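Need tokens for this chain, all 221 residues.
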Amino acid sequence: MRTVIFDLDGTLADTSGDLIAAANGCFESLGHGAVLDPASDAATAFRGGRAMLRLGFARLGAEDAEAQVEREYPRLLERYGAAIDVYTRLYPGALDAVEALRSAGFTIGICTNKPEALAELLLRRLGVRGAFASLVGADTLPVRKPDPAPYRAAVERAGGQVERSLLVGDTETDRETARAGGVPCVLVTFGPDGRGVEALGPEALLDRFDALPDLVERLLP
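Here are the structure tokens for all 221 residues:
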């Protein structure tokens, strides 16, 4: 069965606002202001909680930045889980594209570097968990993307075959995951990096979700 695996943050949904809010909550609890900006720092948000904390502590000139990152990371996850869908929205047309692929006989899954429990929570809050046959998160396996094992697990748990699958993502991590797994990669251009992702050499670029079904048919005939 042909399978399409999606990244979550920055691909299916714009989660940056809630991620930045959680990180800023950590800085504010330490007596700082809102160190990160929801707009200009969105790309960092999509690279994970530790990336946001590192950026913030670097701006603050913290001498023991890495130790503070590790100390605040669990608190960031707790804050994020408590307010995970305040600003988060699916990108326009995302669910329609997923349903179109399912109707065409594709099986659909998610492979994300968000912790699995948080990804489950977010998808259920957004009311779309049932659209995905599998979900593999950052801590589902001992390794995470760009190691190809989580991707392969997402395909297999969805009932598909890796050799008849592709990955839709938004970052270099997704590009490297697809390369390591020997599968095509589609990168979206509506994230913070815009068409800059073209430099990563994906098999295809996606400007809007309504173009995805035809694009997938070409890559997985």
